[in-house]
Amino acid sequence: MQGAYGDLLGRYFELPCAPALVMLPAPTTPFVATRITCLPDQLGMKQEIPPQDAFAVTLHLAGVSHHELWVRGRPSVVRGYAPGAISIVDLRDEVASYLGSPLDALHFYVPRALVDAVTDAAGLARVSGIACMPGLVDPVMENLGAAVLALLERPQRASSATSEHLAIAICAHLVHRFGSTADGDAAASLAPRHSRACTERHPFPFETLLMTTPSSPSVQDNPSKHRFEFESQGERAVAIYSLAGDVITFIHTLVPEALQGQGVARQLVLAGLASARERGLRVIPQCPVFAAYMRSHPETHDLLADEGRALLGL
Predict the structure, then answer these.
(1) Cα–Cα distance, 103 to 100 (Å, whole number)
(2) Start-to-end C-alpha separation, the chain
(3) Cys-Cys crosslink for 314: which of 64, 131, 307, 309, Cβ 3.0 to 4.6 Å?
(4) 86 touches 141 (CB < 8 A)
(5) How many domains, the chain?
(6) Quick check: 287 and 239 in contact, CB under 8 A?
(7) Residue 120 within any structural domain of the chain
């Protein structure tokens, strides 16, 4: 059975079609982003989604004044959502939506098997589930969602490498921020026995991204979007981070194809670490690009938080 994404998800919302982007293709566990837009004449009770072993992560692109999540035939969560708010639903339950106001949202179909595969590849501890308080505004997901939306709107620029990088970044962030273990504890800890081997066998050439130096170091911190930015040739490379107290977690580095091979990733890493040192922040290099650099540069190890040291196997 196809999962709840693309046109099939659109039919559950009684839409003729729904634009979708398969970000991580797989025979049975694809990671897919689908945009669902319901106008004022398309409100009311929607069809129930059959149970499946996956999570639905919704990022609201516009405010919603009245939305109801129904679970097993009964209303479970009734509330409004601000732009940038998210919700996470376990699709093993029988879920449906009632729309009392228009909806414009990105729905991420996240198979449970893919969460396990991505966490294993990233050296993260496996989780029993992912969940958050409905309506939480998560700047990192908002930022990653904006990048996905740009690819949906311009599919000709959606290279497989870019889509895969974003999918892995989203999965890693969801696990790191919202994952829970079987006993209900947050799954922020990493599995150091896997970290080095998993980075080495990762399919993306993170080490080679760091080998050259760009001719113009023009990296800027954009605190409102939680990212460092490098702009050149009309393109923008970013290093996305999150802040929690005195800890900065570097989540994902994205370099467009036009800027690859110029050492842009290295410049983003250097700028991010310099900023952390200047501000007295401890670092968790969840992003494999940051992890590769810090592993090979012992002079940066004093910046590492305990979780960062575990990630690098130190």
Answers:
(1) 9
(2) 44
(3) 309
(4) yes
(5) 2
(6) yes
(7) yes
Closest listed residue to residue 158, CA positions, set 60, 24, 9: 24
Bridge partners, residue 109, by sequence: 32, 56
Inter-residue contact 78 to 65 (CB < 8 Å): no
How do the pLDDT tens digits run along the chain, 314 residues long?
468 899 999 999 999 989 999 988 776 678 999 999 999 999 999 999 999 999 999 999 999 999 999 999 999 999 999 999 999 999 998 999 999 999 999 999 999 888 887 677 655 667 888 999 999 998 888 888 888 888 888 776 666 777 877 887 888 788 878 887 655 454 443 333 333 333 333 334 444 344 444 444 478 999 988 999 998 878 888 999 999 899 999 988 888 877 877 788 888 999 999 999 999 999 999 888 898 888 888 889 999 999 888 888 88
How do beta strands 103-111 and 31-38 pair? antiparallel
pTM of the model: 0.68
- Residues 34, 134, single domain; the answer is yes
Domain that holds residue 241: 195-311
Residue 186 lies in a domain: no
Could you tell me if 131 and 214 lie in one domain?
A: no
Task: Say if strands 282-284 and 247-254 run parallel, antiparallel, or are unpaired.
Answer: parallel
